[in-house]
Write a structure and sequence with these properties.
It is built from 26 helices and five strands. It is mainly α. A hairpin with a 5-residue loop joins strand 4 and strand 5.
Length: 564
């Protein structure tokens, strides 16, 4: 167009198409994270056309670190009377203040944007609602964040960037509300598939990571590992997001390390009941997983330590520079970057004063306990964990479960079986999977009756890394059931935590080994059993064809189903 129509353009020239093309090219460059090119195209557009879109400068300037210039452009936009410009300017300004670690100011700005966007005659924008909810989240207001995320889900637009169901899944995971998380994840994938493809709409990695995180917490470690492996070298684009790409790369690596640790714990369990002829294959798998975990930890540590403020961001949890992208892996930072480095950083953060410390103190003390435990100081860890329990908000149930796991581990190192026993009771009732994640052992009695298969199963269970046979505590019962076996795990008070039943194998030994496999798969996970079809639905694979068919029908003029 520029070559065909030299300036000054005649009245019949396609100037509207040219203006539209420039805007689309601007967004394309933004999506590709080519921010200098985006600014150059916007300069051409602003030189020739009205109304001005000055607010669009804010985002690429912020991404380039030219924050002062971004603020000046936003001030220009806010000085005018164009509501579209004001909304976009306020949204960008909120992101700038959020990235600058001014969460109170970011929340105040997004509250102003919320009021403007809900004024009569305005189309409610799910992205603005979602961002407002995130600013509330960063202040630790989980209930308020959930309310605004839910409101955002009522305003689907296939051309918007945000997916509020993804954020709701994260909120629910923080609160260990697994059924709600499952529902949100399915809706998250449906929302994504119904949205139109955009160059910078790069949240596939993050959506899959949240899905894998749920599967891991539900006890489906192998399925989670399959997804986590794919994520490490397939980062999302973040041209339309305010965070940096390396931040998400480190998050994928940390999550991969987390799932590998869970996998290694399962490998230990399998070795306790697998035939010796098959152990060489298991050992080879274990060595491979250990090497992968070490590699992921080193890569993540290099990224975190190369970026000032990222380690403290992870320890503060609510910081905009938190390199942990999915829930519950921050306590692993001492293993990844070193317990001494983490403890020194926490001491520095605890020396601050003000609202930020009040919000973050519980997290900092929790991770201080983790750092001390990592270097073998169990007594010091218990002291920090006791302080963390006093100030960590009750809504952060995932972190409170981590606190219990760390406390049980520290008490075990000190040999305080009575106190550890009480903590394990609470842990099993809240999240049985934490016993595996923290490599704990349940003190228990193992009872067998009914035949050689039951006796053999009891003997194999006595070598389990998850059990500590004795005369008190939990109770594992194994009995014959026809030619097969049945059993249960009882709590200390006699309450039945879970039941197991297996069909007969080729012989008594095979039946006993199968019982041990079923026991370990079911005893240390929430009481949620998923079919393969449900797992595929969670990962989005069974939703893809269905939603793509709906999109195709829409393109052909067939009315799509009502929005969720």
């Amino acid at each position: 167009m520029e070559q065909s129509y030299r300036e000054p353009w005649a009245n019949g020239a396609p100037w509207r198409f040219y203006a539209s093309t420039l805007i689309q090219l601007f967004w394309t460059y933004e999506g590709l994270e080519r921010h200098e090119d985006a600014i150059s195209v916007l300069n051409v557009r602003e030189q020739h056309f009205f109304p001005k879109r000055t607010s669009l400068y804010g985002w690429p300037l912020m991404k380039l670190g030219r924050v002062d210039q971004a603020r000046k452009k936003i001030e220009e936009s806010l000085a005018g009377n164009d509501p579209d410009e004001m909304e976009n300017a306020l949204n960008t300004l909120g992101a700038i203040e959020g990235e600058a670690d001014h969460p109170e100011l970011a929340y105040e700005i997004s509250t102003r944007l919320y009021s403007l966007n809900h004024s009569p005659g305005r189309e409610v924008n799910a992205t603005f609602l979602r961002n407002h909810a995130e600013h509330a989240w960063k202040l630790g207001h989980l209930a308020e964040a959930e309310r605004y995320f839910l409101e955002a889900t009522e305003h689907f637009n296939p051309y918007r960037l945000s997916n509020p169901w993804k954020d709701l899944a994260s909120v629910y995971l923080d609160q260990q509300r697994l059924p709600e998380t499952m529902d949100a994840i399915k809706r998250m994938h449906s929302w994504a598939y119904r949205s139109r493809p955009l160059v910078g709409l790069g949240d596939w990695n993050h959506r899959q990571a949240i899905t894998a995180c749920l599967l891991m917490y539900c006890g489906y470690t192998e399925e989670a590992l399959q997804i986590a492996r794919r994520l490490v070298d397939l980062p999302d684009r973040h041209g339309y997001g305010s965070t940096q790409s390396d931040l998400w790369t480190s998050g994928s690596l940390i999550f991969y390390y987390q799932v590998l640790q869970d996998t290694l714990a399962r490998d230990e369990e399998r070795l306790s009941y697998t035939r010796w002829q098959e152990r060489s294959l298991l050992w080879a798998q274990r060595i491979s997983n250990s090497v992968s975990a070490l590699s992921a930890a080193r890569r993540a540590a290099r990224i975190i330590m190369a970026n000032p403020g990222w380690l403290s961001g992870g320890l503060r949890v609510l910081s905009p520079t938190n390199p942990v992208s999915v829930q519950g892996a921050e306590y692993l930072l001492p293993e990844i970057v070193g317990s001494g480095v983490v403890e020194a950083e926490i001491r520095k953060l605890l020396s601050r004063r003000g609202a930020a410390l009040d919000r973050e103190k519980g997290f900092l003390l929790l991770f201080l306990g983790s750092a001390r435990l990592s270097r073998g100081d169990a007594a010091g860890a218990l002291m920090a964990l006791a302080q963390a329990e006093q100030v960590l908000p009750a809504e952060w149930r995932l972190e409170r479960t981590q606190l219990l796991g760390l406390r049980a581990k520290a008490l075990g190192l000190l040999g305080d079986r009575a106190q550890q026993f009480q903590v394990l009771q609470t842990l099993m009732s809240r999240d049985a999977g934490a016993v595996r994640r923290f490599r704990l052992k349940l003190p228990c009695r193992i009872e067998a009756s009914g035949g050689p298969a039951a006796s053999k199963a009891a003997a194999l269970l006595a070598h389990s890394p998850r059990l500590e046979p004795g005369q008190s505590g939990f109770r594992v019962v194994v009995t014959s059931a026809g030619s097969g076996l049945q059993g249960r795990l009882d709590g200390p008070g006699g309450d039945i935590l879970c039941r197991f039943r297996v069909n007969p194998g080729a012989d008594a030994n095979a039946t006993a080994r199968e019982f041990c496999r079923v026991f370990h798969n079911n005893a240390f996970k929430p009481r949620i059993d998923l079919s393969q079809q449900q797992i595929n639905s969670l990962s989005g694979s069974t939703l893809a064809s269905e939603d793509m068919n709906d999109q195709l029908k829409g393109l052909l003029g067939v009315a799509p189903p009502p929005s969720q």
